[in-house]
Design goal:
The protein is of the alpha/beta class. The protein contains 7 helices and 7 strands. The two termini are 27 Å apart.
């Protein structure tokens, strides 16, 4: 599947009608999701036939993209009941058999139950800027504990040095695959600008 086809497909995914500020619910755009998944699939062969987890999956754009690219099974993990409902509606629309969702708090996930159970973990975690500092690292540590091969994640470029230090501490190889501009549309009432560009790193953490 070509990148444009994948992006066009992901534009059909329904997103939040009323995003929740405290959960930092900013949808991953079809363009960014498409670029992430296309690279994971074509450059690293970490989706097709693989068991994939999507942490903080929201309405499911990354999960659905992975399922469309023939993941063996993609399981989304999401705390918000409303997001899970939208996720399930999207799965019905796409008629995908190789996808599931678990409602749970990723930060309290009993990681021992899922230790090394997934080939690949993908995620666009909360950046930890809204009264939940450090949540991005909690997501990352959980993801690394669950993955057998690799974790793919988005993080603010400004946190790169900190993340590299953590990766070294955890004995994980970190590679910045791309630097992206995350176009954050005005989602909440306090947003004064129509959109803001945030510099974001698309990172691969390899566990082998």
């Amino acid at each position: 599947m070509k990148l444009k086809e994948l992006e066009s497909c992901l534009q059909q995914v329904d997103v939040f009608e009323e995003p929740k500020l405290l959960l930092e619910q900013y949808p991953t755009s079809p363009h960014i999701a498409g670029c992430m998944l296309y690279t994971i699939h074509n450059t690293f062969d970490d989706i097709k036939g693989k068991l994939v987890a999507d942490l903080g999956c929201g309405c499911g754009v990354l999960s659905i993209g992975a399922a469309v690219l023939d993941a063996g099974l993609c399981v989304g993990f999401e705390v918000d009941e409303d997001a899970v409902d939208i996720f399930k509606g999207n799965v019905e629309e796409f008629e995908l058999p190789n996808i599931d969702v678990v409602q749970c708090d990723v930060c309290c996930l009993e990681t021992m139950s899922f230790a090394k159970k997934f080939d690949t973990v993908i995620m666009n975690p909360p950046f930890g800027t809204k009264h939940n500092q450090g949540i991005d690292m909690t997501f990352l540590k959980t993801a690394i504990s669950m993955a057998k091969t690799a974790v793919y994640s988005l993080h603010k470029t400004s946190t790169r040095e900190h993340i590299q230090k953590k990766a070294d501490d955890w004995n994980v190889k970190m590679e910045v695959i791309a630097e992206l501009r995350y176009d954050l549309p005005a989602t909440y009432k306090f947003h004064k600008k129509k959109s803001v560009d945030i510099q974001v790193d698309f990172i691969r953490f390899s566990l082998k």
